[in-house]
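Render this sequence as a predicted structure.
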Amino acid sequence: MYIELLKKSLLDLVHNPDPMVEAGRVWKKEEIGRALTMVGMPRLTNIEQCLVDIIENKVEGDLMETGVWRAGCCILMQGFLAQ
């Protein structure tokens, strides 16, 4: 439940629900508002699934996001690892 709330917070869907963003529409920069990422819910869920796979298979190494805008994916990875 924590990760779902974190993903919604990163997309600014907690206070501003948008079914199109929830379904996976990527934000346009001019309408991003307070969101911390433009990748959309499906991509955040994919990152979460990748992290689960990394933990389950004990993959060693570091995590990195390239092309960072407001660091939303980094925030998700840190929140996932901190739980």
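Summary. The helical segments are 2-10, 19-23, 41-56, 72-82. The chain has a mean pLDDT of 86.
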